[in-house]
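Re: the request from the purification team.
They wanted to know what the chain is likely to look like in 3D before they choose a buffer screen. I agreed to run a prediction and write the result into the notebook, where they can find it.
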Amino acid sequence: IAGRTVLEIGPGSGANSLYTASLRPARYVLVEANPTGVDDIERLFAAHPDWRRGLEVQPMLLGEYAKQAGGARFDVVLCEGVLSGVPNPEEILQQAAGFVAPGGVLVITCIDHISYFPDTLRRLCARRLIRPDQSLREQVAVLRPVFRHHLARLKGMSRPHEDWIIDNLINPASIGRLCSMPEAIAVVAGEFAFYASSPHFVADWRWYKAIAGEPAAINQMVIDQYWQQVHNFLDARGLFPPRPAQANRALEERCRSVRDALREFETTRERASLQAIRDQLREAAQHIRGYSPDVAEAVGEVGAWLTQEPPDGRALAEAQRFGGWFARGQQYVSFTRRSP
């Protein structure tokens, strides 16, 4: 980063940006459309005036910045926690990729329906515990004592529980579209080659004399291995052998159908939608049981809890299988742009 040009899209409150600024980039631009985020950035950097002097804060949408940037290119483009949740992830990713200089690096985060499945179910449970007529503060007060027991079991949990609850269980954007790794690769595949990911699941068996080649071959290798390994995104506590891509595509479809039904339930609040979700959870549990009985039991706990009338928050807080189940959530993915 030192001496390089860096563009960060959607830095939010700027906590990660503070570290990047400390590495002394030659130019560092933050594009943040949320006024609250801009205010947070200014407050955060006020304690570090030397780093603030080298910072360019652009309080606008990425499309607006693209129009006024005059064709600017950057050595590094960061787009963390942005693509999943916006209604147009492909458009945002295309715009972000357009700012990467030849030979530069693009870093994004992806979320898919498998890696987000337990949080999808937590959001479903939250919908049954809160009412639309409650204020945000009231909703958080209802959910905090339930999910703090879950979050206490999550290794490395560093965010305030209230922030996590608002972002993942209440915020309307968090039930929007997701952007998976294959979907992101499809957008940038023409000029960009996959470089690395976290988790780092790709095994590259190309001979060292054959590693140079077109991005298409590298990117396809990643997609193929993704579909063989994506079931391991479902549970952060363990690893399982590769599975046939067809089996994992079926798993993804089951997780996707539950999320789609949840979106409908949030809109209609109809019991028929809830019954459809319970049926889908039974199918998902049967599919998952073949390789992860623990996760299948966790899904079964949720299905059983959904039958309770009225819903019991204490029982959900104390759910042994479900409470300790977290998936691999967000994945970091980086790409390099081919030089002319």
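For the purification team: Residues 84 and 178 are 4 Å apart (CA to CA).
Please add any questions underneath this entry.
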